Each structure stands twice: as C-alpha cells, then as structure tokens.
Queue: 2 jobs
Job 1
Amino acid sequence: MRSSERQIAEGILFTDQYQLTMAQLYYRMGLHEKRVQFDHFFRQYPDYGAHQAGYCINAGLEWFLDWMQEARFREPELEYLSKQTGRTGSPLFAPDFLDWLRRHGSFEGLTIRAIPEGRVVHANVPLTVVQGPLAMAQIVETSLLNHLNFQTLIATKAARIHDSGRGRLLLEFGLRRGHGKGANAGTRAALIGGADFSSNVGVSHVLGYPPKGTHAHSMVQLFMSLGMSELEAFRAYAQVYPDDCLLLVDTIDTLHSGIPNAIRVFEELRRKGHQPVGIRLDSGDLAYLSIQAAKMLDEAGFPDTSIVLSNDLDELVILQIITQISQEAPRYGVDPDRLIGRLVYGVGTRLITSWGEPALGGVYKLVAVYDQGRWIPAIKISDSAAKTPNPGHKLVWRIYDRRGNATADLLSLDDEDPRRMDRLVLRHPSDPMMFRVLSREEITEIEPLLVDVWIEGKLVYELPSIEEIRAQRQADVARLDPGVRRLVNPHLYHVSLTQRLWDLKQELLRSAMDKSR
Amino acid sequence: MRSSERQIAEGILFTDQYQLTMAQLYYRMGLHEKRVQFDHFFRQYPDYGAHQAGYCINAGLEWFLDWMQEARFREPELEYLSKQTGRTGSPLFAPDFLDWLRRHGSFEGLTIRAIPEGRVVHANVPLTVVQGPLAMAQIVETSLLNHLNFQTLIATKAARIHDSGRGRLLLEFGLRRGHGKGANAGTRAALIGGADFSSNVGVSHVLGYPPKGTHAHSMVQLFMSLGMSELEAFRAYAQVYPDDCLLLVDTIDTLHSGIPNAIRVFEELRRKGHQPVGIRLDSGDLAYLSIQAAKMLDEAGFPDTSIVLSNDLDELVILQIITQISQEAPRYGVDPDRLIGRLVYGVGTRLITSWGEPALGGVYKLVAVYDQGRWIPAIKISDSAAKTPNPGHKLVWRIYDRRGNATADLLSLDDEDPRRMDRLVLRHPSDPMMFRVLSREEITEIEPLLVDVWIEGKLVYELPSIEEIRAQRQADVARLDPGVRRLVNPHLYHVSLTQRLWDLKQELLRSAMDKSR
C-alpha cells in the first residue's frame, strides 16, 4: 500500500461495512442521534492451550485516541461511499445521509470513560465505556476493538514472559514475524506489559526508547565466505563497538568456537580498558549452554557479562530453562541464582503474535439507551446466563484485602459508592448461589477504576508516559494474589456485582424473557 | 501513534537495530558495498496443531515494493541515529557512516527476483532473492520478512478455508481481531488466498473490492430497548435496503423468532417486487441450524436465499459443518448438496490471525558473496543438514507430471536449464539416499518460477492486479496433487536439487567442516 492510500485505509473507513449500513438505517429512522452506551470488555482471559492467563494488562488506549482525533469523513471517503452500489446497481448510501456524515460524522458527540493503560484488568469488567449518538458510537466500534484488543493481548503476553524470567531484562525482537505494520503496536504493548527494550528502531524512536541489537549470524558467515574466521568477525565487531560488545556465539559451534573466540576478544577489549557486554545464544539447549557459557566466562574472569538467550522463547520455555538451570548448574559448579541473574531474554515470534492465542475476544455491547428522559438498560437474551452482559450504567471498583492484594473487582450501579458501605455483598455475575460478604475491616482500599477520557469530543485525560504506564503495570501485578498471577492453571479472580446491580440484571432478564414469549 | 510519527515508525527505520549496527561495521571495514545475495524462504509449512498446510500461497510482494519505493534515510531518521548513544554515552553511529547513509542509504543498488504473488510455494524454495551492496541488502531484511511472512501466512490460511468451503463465497470479517493496522495487510492477503470480499471498508476501497456487511445484534437490541420488536427491526432494515436484505436471525431465538420473522419480512419484500438476499447465523450449532433454516426458507418459497454462517469458523470447523450437513440434512428432507451450495462463510478471528500458527517462519539467509570476480557460496555449518540453506545462485523450476499436476519444485544452478535435459535427477536436499529420476515423457511442463522484479533500484515488474493474482492462485491450487492439498496430514511435496547443486552443497559442507576444525 502506498502512503497516499493509507489515509483512506487507516482513517475513519478503518471500520466494518455494517457499521455504515446500520448508521444509515438509524439515520433513516431518526435514531442516529439517540444517546446510547456501549461497554467494551472481554469475556475470557487468553488461553494459550497448555496454559492460561489469570489477568490481562490493559493497553492501546492512547493510540486509539490518536486515531479518534484524526479520523473523520473527508471528501474522499464520502465520494467513495457515494459510489458504493447495492445488488441492483443503485447507490447504497443516499445523499442526505452522506451529507449528515459530512456535517456530523466525527466523534465530537462521544463521551468515553476507560480503565487506564497498564492496569491489570479482568474478564467481564467494562474496560471502555462509550456514550453518545448512536450512529457514531456504532461506527467507532471496529477501530476501538482493533486497537484495544491487540495491544491488551500483547501487553498481557509480555507481562507473563517478564514474570517467567523473574523480572530480568526482556528484549522484544518480533518485528519480522509481526502482523504487518501492527508489529509497531505490538512493540508498544510489549513495552507496556514487561519488555524493557525492543529491536524495532522506528517505533522505539517514536516512544523514546533506545532500540537494542548487535549482529546476526550473517555477519560471521560473511567474514567466513571472505576467507576470514569467526574470531576475525568478533574482533571487527569489538573494534567498532568496544563498549557495546555483545557477540552471537552459535554460528559455528557454541562451546568449541563461539564462546572461546568471544572470550579471546573480551580479553583483548579488557586490556584496552573496555568492559565487554556479553554473549548471545540463539540455538541448541539454552539451559545447558548457558550453564557452560557461565562456567567458561567465570573462569576467564568475566563473571558480570550478560548471557542473552533467544530462539522461540515464551513464558513456559523460560520457566523450563530456569528450572533446568536451578537443577543442573550446581553439578557444574555454577551458582544457579547468579546465572539466572545474568540472563537476558530476547523474545520474538511468540511475544509479538501472542503465540497460542493470537487474538483477545474483546467485544463492544449495547448496554443502555437513553429514551424519554431516562437510561434504559439493554440486554441480549439469546446468550447464556454467563455470557449476558451486565446491563446499564455502571461503575467499576477494585477491592483490596487486608494484605493489600486486589481481591475482587466490583461492578455497581452509577449511584452506588461501595466506599460508603459498611459491608460489601459481592454477587457472582450469573450464579445465584455464589456470593461473598466482606466487612469493612477486611478491606484496606476501594479504588474506582474508570476515568474520564473523552468528553463531548474533547480529550480530557492527561495521557501518561510509557514509563508511568509501566510503573502502573508493575504496581498492579505486585498487588495480585500469587495464585492469580500463576502462569499455568491460575486461580480465578473474582469479578462481582453489587446486590442492586444483580437485582437489576435479574429483573431485566425476566422482563426480556416475558417479552420474547 | 499520530500520523506525523508514522513516517518515522513505518519508513526505513521499520527495521531491527542490528541491521544498522552491522551496516556501520561493514562500512568501517570497507565491506558495505560488497555485492552479496540473500535468499528468502521458509523452512516449514504452517502447522496449526491438529492440522498442517501442505503448500503456501505467496503474498505480500506488492506492498513490500511500495515500501521500498518510499523508504529512505531522510534528515529526521539520520538525526535520530546521530543521537543514539552506546553504554559509555558516546554516539553509536559516526558522522561518516551517517553521511554514507544520507548519500547511498536507499535501495537503488538492489536487484530482486521473486516468485509472483498468488503462486503456490513450498518449503526451502527461494521465494525472494536479493542481490546488492551488503549494507542495504542487510537493512532491507526486516521489512521484507515482515511484509512477506505475514501476507503469505494469511493467504495460505484463506486458501485452506476457501478449499474447506468447497469454493463457496468466503467473506473476511476479522478487522476487530486483527493485529492493529496489520489487519489491512491481512485483508489483502485473505483476498489473494481465497476470500471473495471483506467487511473492512477502507482497504476494500483501496483494493477496488466492494466491502460486505449488513447489521449486528446491536441493531435488534436497540429496537427492543425502545419497546419495538425483532420483526420491526427487520422491517426497518428491509425498508432501507430492499434489494440487499440479509438479516441476522440469532439475537433472540434463531428457530422460533429470527427465521420466522425474516421469512415474514422476505414475503413482504417479495410482494413489493424485491428479491431478499438471505439470513446470517452467528451462534449455536451452525450445521443443525442451517438445515432447519434451509427447510423453513424452502417451505416459505425462498430456496435461493443465502445462509451466511459466522462465529469462530476455520477450515476444520467448516469441514465438520459440511460433513454434518451431508449426514443429517436428508433426515429432515433437505438436499445436502443444495444446502451446501447456498452457504456463505463469514470468517473473522481465525483467518486474520492464522489461528493455530500466527507466524510464518520465513528467513533471509546469506547464500553468496561476490569476491575477486566470482560469486562465493556461503554456508552456515552449525545448522543440521536439513536446516542448511542451499548455497549460491540458483534457479527455481516447477515440474508438472503427465496429469499436468505439479510434482516437484527443482532448484538448479543458474547456468542449468532442466528444459534442455533428457532426464531429470531430483536429489533430496539433505538425504543422500533419496532421489527420483524423471524421463522427458513423464513431464508435461517445466516452468521457471522466479521473475525479475527490481533491477538496480528500478521496479521492472508489471504488478498484476488482485484479480490476476487470484486467478494465478486458483490455477496453481488446481494443479496440486489432492494429497498435497489435503487439510489434515497432507502429502509432502517434493523440493529437490539438481545433481550439480547437490554436488556443490556437499563440497561446501565438506570444506566448511574442514575449515572449522
């Protein structure tokens, strides 16, 4: 795609056709400016097959807001729509509707509340709440879901990988395997979720992060094709980057060529007063090789050099490597904890694609309609009880227990404030038999999660820096119960309703069932 | 990301940092303009877990070439690089190197041959061959892999889904679950591989395809929240789109509300002289419901309306639906073949993300270096025999058997022409015991696959239209052996070497082994 076409393909037409056909229908019925509320939420945590997330990291809001601020119906878009035809060849979109889009087809009428980026978020909790005129609240859906689903998916994967590596340095290497330009959004989300740096130069620049990377196998191969050796390739690298010398040691033979050659070059560097950075292992048994590498580097007097691991890593592979090192390293006289402390993880494909679960099923559901002076909650009754969205205007609260850990997210009606309640009744969202009662003494904090972001077309939210978002993520993950944080078979975090919201939902379900009979 | 930042993030810095650090090293060593060859290929077909591809559909070239034509080092990029620092705080990139990038940092020196888009392609066959000055041939790697890996991945998935649906209409619905802006590239690839239309408005416009879509559950819900009924919602839709009336029938109860209401509206439309289009089923047992829907529509006199199926479809789900219909439909007096013939598939998440295998492991390997007046093949010996890339300059030929089916892809040296050989010896790429001999009579056609695309910085290739690419895909898939085309456990397609290429590879391996000892 040429950049001239990108404005069309990535602007306000970055949406599904049915949003436009529905918008015209609402226009025709006089419903297009009726105020409605849509809730954005996901129903299930990513399930990677052999393992599953117990929480997600919210991400994508800033880039979605950037999109909203620029997307509008300009003449090229309107002209294109005017040329669309139906089956009989007549125009699909009528001039009066297109004219309405020309005059009102922006997001000026919308109001958005959202949970900030970097926060731990849970299934069935409204992450983004959109209110405003029906037609535009509908047209914004696809782009909202695209932006927020993907970045939340990748931030979540990054948080898991970061956690599995015990918080050691995590590098995002996935640009070549990312989904087209979406790889840039993936890099941003990875940084939010737990990656410390990325190899992706352009987006690192935009985000203000120094990109990371040294050299590929091809460099060693090139030297060898020209009749030189791996050692000469390493020496050349050390000469150009004496203070940033990290060498990839598996092009020929890791233990018998790569590491010995790297150590020779490191010794030469040290004699010239430079500090070598480390080595990278990109193939073979990474646990075994890192133990041997640590031993060789220690013996040569380089105990502080990093050992970067790469090659199809993800959270379970890293967990296994660390487990194997813990068990095997002592046998070779290597201190496992010291070794684990010098590891760096370069993670590509499996982070940038969220391997195992490459999509988050975030949805955008109509929950209320403003009619005759009041908000009417909406409900879709073909869903199972568990799938039925929670109706109407809601607030979201996070409850912290005595230890200061998050113990539940509570959805309330918008005139309820659980901070003023003596005891909290936490109702299960669909099972009438399940509820918990918490007394004030069991609670250390009750925190509202949704913030005002966009009011009547204006950005009212001060966008936090990536550093602030990362700090929020770190704080939130630290306040999770270890069981919820577990990589495999996590404990289910409670998302509950207040008694009044529960009662409203039951009443609506009954009345909808009656009507449909 | 704001559009002003996009130029940085999606331009020439849409690459990995190590490409730039290696480029500077080559500059420093005087090697940056040495001519080299890199081959781009994939080693394994996508493996979706319970099923695996036996072929891929090549895609992504045009958008990669678009990128190449626009990407260059401008002042903002050079200024950014000049500000990057190493560990000691001194600049990472020196002024003389940046000046070289300013003057020569374009793709003008590159020459690219490639297999066209839409062609069936196989593992270990060079899909794209890049020759040119080392520094720029290295810098282009990341973007080349990003563009070609992703679109080939999605075109392949689309071809499988299209095949499983017996070639019936396939709609791409994945924008909300795609990976950010990469969803647009995914839509293009889906259209190449087998989707007929997409819901994605913007990119459909850019590609010249009418986008498809009608309405969502939210439309019916909205009407109901306002005290109206599903029937009234359907009527409103039919009134606005009398000739394009396709109704989503599962908001309340598919069999007892949705379909009967749709039929009432269809009857009203018919009385007014309009032809209703059909219904969409988005939940429940799609096989069972489509049989019942067909029966009800037939009985009401609408035997030609479409039945659109959606909801987490992929090739195996569609295969199962069709199998179930074949077995169950007769029991209800419904002709299964007629029913299968009126089905339309709307496929979202599992197509746009290539569910089960969300990345194609395409690689870009140094295979030759031009030195002292001749090309020297390069080899990386730490790889296993099966993983060792085929060295040097090569041509790619497709051999068709007596039935006109593709029976093997043959890699030859660049001065070999198998069309002039009396008999062909097809050597297995790594196993010395495996080879086939084909006589002239067993062969109906030998076709070269690589075409000149980009010569010394100029696009020399007339880019085919999407329609032409689709026709190529259709022709190539039709000439596959049914065993290779199989969805599950496909037969392995032969990719072979000529005797001379085999001999060269063995010789290089021996000499590289000797050198590394």
Note: Chain B touches chain A through 127 residues (CB under 8 Å).
Job 2
Amino acid sequence: MAQKKIGEQTVKFDNPPSIIGTATIVGPKEGEGPLKDYFDLVLQDDLWGEESWEKCETKLQQEAIKMALKNAQLIESKVEYLFAGDLLNQITASSYSARQFDIPFFGLYGACSTMSESLSLGAMILDGGYAENVVCATSSHFSTAERQYRFPLEHGNQRPLTSQWTVTGAGASVLSSYGMGPYITHVTTGKVIDPGIKDANNMGPAMAPAAADVIVAHFNDTGFTPEDYDLIITGDLASIGKSIAEELIAKEGYDISNIFSDCGIEIFDPKKQDTHAGGSGCGCSAVVFNGYIFKNLKKQSLKRVLLVSTGALLSPTSVQQGESIPGIAHAVSISTIKE
Amino acid sequence: MAQKKIGEQTVKFDNPPSIIGTATIVGPKEGEGPLKDYFDLVLQDDLWGEESWEKCETKLQQEAIKMALKNAQLIESKVEYLFAGDLLNQITASSYSARQFDIPFFGLYGACSTMSESLSLGAMILDGGYAENVVCATSSHFSTAERQYRFPLEHGNQRPLTSQWTVTGAGASVLSSYGMGPYITHVTTGKVIDPGIKDANNMGPAMAPAAADVIVAHFNDTGFTPEDYDLIITGDLASIGKSIAEELIAKEGYDISNIFSDCGIEIFDPKKQDTHAGGSGCGCSAVVFNGYIFKNLKKQSLKRVLLVSTGALLSPTSVQQGESIPGIAHAVSISTIKE
C-alpha cells in the first residue's frame, strides 16, 4: 500500500484535489467590511425571510452549497459526499441543510476549525479514490452564536475588548479529482491543545498554541519554509491570538511575520465596525477562504496559501463547570500548481 | 486512480482494515442488562469519582480509548488519527477526552450514528494509505443527555412509552492496516432523510427511513442479500423504529426479519429495566458493537455483520422552533474474512 504520510501529521497527495468552485454568502455587517467585494451574496438583513436566526443559518449554508455547485458547473447528483459542520448545538444548520440534498453526509464538529477539517477529510477521500467530487461547507451566524454561547441579544451586555464578533456567513467549496486548480497539495491535522485559559471572552489565546503547533508541524513534516508561502492565514485568532501564535512559531525557528494574517483580522475593520479583537465563527475562515483567498488563487495573485482554521472547543456547560478551553487547528496547503 | 466506489453510496476496500482491539465501559444499569458479560468495565455509579456527569462522560470516553489501545497492544504514539464524537453540545466529551492524547483529532457529529460514522471515515483513511492505525470512539451518558435534551432529572417527569433510555457508556475501536480481523470490508454512507416526525420522545420512527434507505442502498450497491449476513443490527431504532425499518426494507424486496436486530433492543430488558422502547445514545451501538458483536466476531460465532448506527439530527432549539426530526444512518460491513 502506498504510504502517503510524510512526517508525523501531514499527508501529501499523489493526486492533489482541485477546488473547482466555491461560494460565499454573508450578512450585512460582513458586507460592509474590507472584503465586501469578494463575496457572492450580501444579505440585506440577518433573517433572510426566515422565522428565526437558526433557520436563516440553515438557509445560508444550503444556498452557499447550491451556489458553489453552480459556480463549479456541477450537478448535485455528481457529488458523492458532503462534509459539513457548524457551531449550533447538534450542528443543526448543517444537518437541516443536508436534508435538502440527496448526497451522503458526514457531519463534523471542529468549532471554528471546521472549514479546514472538512477540506482535509474531503481531500483525503478524493485522493484515496473514494469519490470524484465532494462538497465541504460550514456556516455561523452572529445572533445564533450570541444567544447560544453568551447572552440573549436583548440583554445588551457590554462586550470586553478581548471578545470577537461571530461572522454571519456561509462558505462552500467543491473539490474534484479533476480540474485546473487551485489544488490541495498537503493537509496537516492538528491535535487538541489546552493552554489552560478559562475566559470564554478571550478565545484567541486559547487557540493560538494549537495553531502554532500545527503550523510548526507542517513546516517540519513538509520541509516547507515561510518563504514557500505567499500567505499563511489562521481562522479566527484575531488580534490578540495572532501575535501569540506568531511568537510561539518564532520560538521554533520560523519567522512568518511577513506573510502571516488571520481571517478574523481581515474580515472586519475593528475601528469602524466595533468588532474589538476581530471576527470569529466557522463562517469567518469559510467566507475569507472561499471568497478572498480562492479568488486571488484563481487570478494567480496568490500562488501558495496555508489555510489554518482554528477552533475553541468549549461549551457553555464546560465553562460553567470550571473547565479551561482547549484549542484545535488544521492546516491545508493550497497551490496554483499540482506539484 | 483506482475507483473504489461501487454503486451509488458504497466503498469496497482493497485492503480491508482490521479491528485489532476494542473496549467498552458502561454504567450500572447497562451492567445489569442482558449483555453485561460482554463489557470490559461496569461502573458502580454514574459519576466515577468526577464532579459532574459531563466530566464522567469525558472520562468514560478517554478510559475506553486507553483500554482499547491496551487490548490492541498498541502504544498511543502509533495512532495517527482519532475520530470521535458524542451528543453533548459542542461534543465536549470527545474534545476534552482528545485533549488527553497526543493524536491528531477529527471531531464528528452524527448524533447516535457516530460509531458507524467514525468507523467509515477511519476505514477510508486506512485503506487510502494515510495511516496505519486509527482510533474510533464515542460515548453517551443518561444523565447528561436527559438534562441537555429533555428535563432536569430532579423534575422527575413521566416518560412516554415511545421514549428511549440513553445508554451510559463509551466504546472505542482500534483499526489497523495490519491484523487478523475482523475486517471492515465495505461502508455505505447515508443521506439525511426526514419523515416529518416532530415528537422528540419518539425518535425510532424519525430514524427508521434513513436506516432502511442505507440498508437497501447497501444491498443494491454490493449485490449482497440478507442471506449473506449473520446479523444486521441498527443503532437505536428500538422496538417501534425497528418494525418500521423492517417493513420499509421488505417493501424494497429484502426480507431481513430473520437476522435483523437493534442495539437499543439488545442492551436492556425493557420489562425488568423500565426502559420503554429501548436504549439510545451514541454509546448504545458503541458498546453493543465493541462488546457483544466484536467478541462474537472474534470467536467466529458471527461471521459477517452489518452495523448500522442511526442518528436523530434534532436539537432542543430545532424542536422548539417547530422543526421535524431528520434521521441519518451509516452502514459498516464487518467480516471475519478479508474477501
């Protein structure tokens, strides 16, 4: 049997899957941010004609999947697996979205790391020869997340400056064994790492060690250096977590400062948009990746990108029970060439 | 590239992964049921020295993984991926369990279908050449599930006769590219199917169509008939759901009545144990599979089994918002020979 594992945590694909189409749908606030021109659809309000924010989130994900298929010029019956997850209890945005499709479904939970978790598994299933086309999708919604994780919106609580703003948005990628790229060439799968932080309003530092660990593992396993990348972008470390991750990675001998960014930093203008440390949520790296990054890869203004979606694996119950917040991150290497 | 897909939804493995070790830990009630002699450890109480039921569930999963590795005579550093999920909000039993291990982690959510979801993905990752050893695990706990999905236990609510009893237990399987079997030979991945049922105390019928659909797809894709199996066992359809599934499958031309059972029916004695329609929870098919079924496969008293863990994809919020309950099921074919 072919051994495709390189190093401890990385897979290098023999037949790198191609991303043949993506789609992004975002809420009004995201549509006013710095990346507004890269999204396929910006909603006028956060209900989109639905009776609840949760139903709106399901619709976001479902419509993003349909739009990604359309953008990929692929019909639903050609898709062999759907990989999706979200932040809602029991990932109902994904399950209720998947109900609309006649596609075998694997439900995932990786908190805000779900975009790179789904791309990792989807790419392995394609390269392994189990499918020719898969869809990877995720979503989040500011109002469903706030009332589930924190307080009712009506409560009008003050948000600490370390807090992040959950992105309202959904992104979907169609991966294929065929296609002209960009290609997923490597995936490095992360471990759960807990730095002992207990403040649920300060999740960047809880996730930073996991992000640093997987990025360092990626370099060690592949032999790549920061110079091989045009962009290394974490999911939602935001401003506080990003600087911690950068420092932890530097301690391991890799200076990524010139090419390092974070989806949570890129999506909002914190000064104009009152988003404090930055954006967060599964939808954050999903819309930045499937919008901004994918479009720049297509026009070759980015040539090789490492997407590192990051997740904080807390629940309101675990926090109430005095638990600290473990983090996870998965790295996906995407290139315009099939090396 | 090898095309390993057969039919619409099934993968047939070139190098069927071997299940080289399993472990099961159950609560006191499960330890008094008909399958009590097949479990590795029966707890004396439902806290196991922890401060909360949720922390007990984390410990259940974590100790089941350690015990499965011991039973497989494998050290942790040889395991390349851990696939796990559970019913708790944000799958904290799995994430906090995974925190204890230095193993790359993929979090899953498939409700009570998680055991066969994890075995499906784990087997594909092994057969695809991405790993030599993976662990698949899941858990549930009666008391964490009751208070999360239904009422505080102190409320002492009356349970309708259609309701099921969430199993307190965890099961883990170690899969390997090497080993003497039993082997996972095929996986058939299910779709989300919603029969429109809105009663969260009657989940068997909500899952039965998904179970029937994936079993029929398995027969159609593989050419197997009911005669090829010693046992076809669903996850937790329990008494009401099982009879519906059997009828739906018969309508498609397959009479499985002689070899059809359900983990939720096998695990408790409903008359003596007051469990109404039967057992449920991720832990239900996990402990029946990793205990009773695995041990019977090892001693060849079962030769070919189709495990079909079943999940009801509701959340308390989706039910409160008037949504119906979609179901999902994944089928995993396990044989004593590597055919």
Note: Chain B touches chain A through 64 residues (CB under 8 Å).
